[in-house]
Amino acid sequence: MKRANKFSVITPCFNSENYIEETIQSIINQSAVLSKRVELEYILCDGGSSDNTLEIIRKYEKLHKLIVVSEIDAGMYDALAKGISKVSGEVCCYLNAGDYYSKTAFDVVLDVMENNDISWLTGINTYYNEKSQVISFFVPFKYRSSFIRAGIYGTVLPFIQQESTFWRADLNKLIDLEELRKFKIAGDYFLWFSFAKHHRLYIVQSYLGGFKTHYGQLSGNLEPYVNEMQRIIASNFFFKILGGLEYFLWLLPTGLKRALNRNYFLKYDIIKNVWK
Asked: What are the pLDDT digits (tens) for 210-255?
């Protein structure tokens, strides 16, 4: 396994003056960054904002050595593709303006990746309101690669939460960036679809990040999202039936979820002080 001591984080943004600062601060103030346990490469791709977004970003640019790209783009995933093309770290993730990470998220991811042969992981699904208060959370049960590629998560079963998901940057070579640029709303699914053919998604029983709900966001309407998914999903009727049956397993207590997904579920061992 390669060392995972450089984290590359991408934030695509556009006219996000009300949200961008909280997102930036959640990244530059990571405990692993402040302790210099990890090196941070933070790439912000602004789509040519007409509000104060860029001015807010510039406040942090030199002090924290941010990589800033500001130019008109074709949307969020065109911006994300630009960011991915610049990544030089060992661990990669992306966070949209308005969302934010737990202060110890990078420490958890580093602990897990240093001690386990894992290429891709996600944490507890967490949601915030406009006041940045946690309003709901749940522990996932299992993410099957076949279900990911059949588009079951986000339609029949809960979404893979992008804000809680991290991967080794080696996986970026699996992404067709030109295809990613074509997506307007479901580009995160395209990433998971690309990864799932070769790697299993692990669940870590930890709060890593969360999704902030607010009026007017792109992800508020599920129908366009599903329509974009359909561009790359093959026939999935059989998997929809299986997903419907598996739904009830998502309602089980966390201990049972872990027992039924033992090989791909990591919990912190307080005796040995390791994630396993």
From this structure: 999 876 665 557 899 999 999 899 778 899 999 999 999 999 999 9
Helix (H/G/I), strand (E/B), else coil: 159 = coil
Half-sphere exposure of 161 (CA within 13 A, CB side): 28
Q: Using the 8-state DSSP alphabet, how is residue 247 labeled?
A: G
SS3 content of the chain, % helix, strand, coil (to 5): 40, 20, 40
Helix (H, G, I), strand (E, B) or coil at 10: strand
For 142, other C-beta atoms within 10 Å of its C-beta total 18
List residues bridging with 11 in a β-sheet. 44
Ordered structural domains, the chain, with CATH = 6-275 (3.90.550.10)
* pTM score over 0.70: yes
Reported confidence tier of residue 51, pLDDT bands at 50, 70, 90: very high
Supply 186's token pair.
């479901």
Cα–Cα distance, 263 to 250 (Å, whole number) = 17
Instruction: State the Cα angle at 190 between 243 and 136, rounded to 5°.
Output: 60
Residue with tokens 């080794």: 168
Dist CA 63 CA 122 (whole Å):
30
Query: Taking a C-beta distance cutoff of 8 angstroms, is the pair 193, 149 a contact?
Result: yes
Report d(CA 51, CA 13) in Å as an integer: 12
